[in-house]
Structures are given as structure tokens and as C-alpha cells.
Amino acid sequence: MAVRSQNISDFLYALGCCLQELGGVPQVLVPDNLKSAIVKANRYEPDVNRALEDFANHYHTAVIPARARKPKDKALRSSRSLPDAKAGSGRSATRVKRTEVSDRLARK
Fold first, then answer.
1. Engineering a disulfide at 98: which of 2, 3, 13, 54 sits with its beta carbon 3.0 to 4.6 angstroms away?
2. What is the pLDDT of residue 96?
3. How far apart are CA 19 and CA 89, in angstroms?
4. Taking a C-beta distance cutoff of 8 angstroms, is the pair 47, 64 a contact?
5. What is the mean pLDDT of residues 43-54?
């Protein structure tokens, strides 16, 4: 699903839609250290955004952010399956509409 921005409301909306599409909730959510989800990254006690904490509490799940510089903590990014939508990939970037990205992801 593509959303307009990475602000907290769009992030939580996309996360909620993802959980609904999956038909369940994992025991642990592992977000990357984007500013909308993690206020302050810290190896031992990261500061999770209050809205994300409330979201996780509502769905009875935990939030454990991915560690910085530890790619094994992160899932494969959907942008790898859409190389033309990724800007700065060394190739000339192609503009892709948000609806087209969502459609491509839905087909996978």
C-alpha cells in the first residue's frame, strides 16, 4: 500500500490496513527507525512514538524497533520488487502514481 507521506497518521493507517489484510496481528512489530515510529533510536531503550505504542496496545502486540545497521532485523523492502519506483537507484527514476504502486503490490 502506498500512502501520501510517512507521517504518523499515514503510517498507522497503512499498518492497520496491512494487519487487516493479513487477517491477524503478529506478537511483535519490528518497524525500521523512521521518525514517525521511533522518536529516538537507542540500542538499549529506543523511544517509541506514543501513538504507535497506543496502536500496539490496542492490538495487543509489542513494538521492538529494528537495530541500526542490522539488516537481518529488517524484512525485504517492497521497493526491491518495484525498481522503477525507487528514486536514486543509479538509473533514471520513473515517476509512478501511488495507485499504480498499490495495484502492483496488491498483485504480488
1. 2
2. 62
3. 30
4. no
5. 91
- Between residues 72 and 17, the one the model is more confident about: 17
Rounded to an integer, what distance in angstroms lies between the CA atom of residue 27 and that of residue 69? 23
Instruction: Give 74's pLDDT tier (boundaries 50, 70, 90).
Output: low
Mean pLDDT for the stretch of residues 34-60: 90
Q: 12: which 3 cell numbers?
A: 498507522
Residue in 66, 10, 71 with CA at minimum distance from that of residue 41: 66
Residue 52: strand, helix, or coil: helix
- Cα–Cα distance between 37 and 23 in angstroms, integer? 22
47-48/28-29 β-pairing? unpaired
Give 7's contacts (C-beta < 8 A, 6+ positions apart). 36
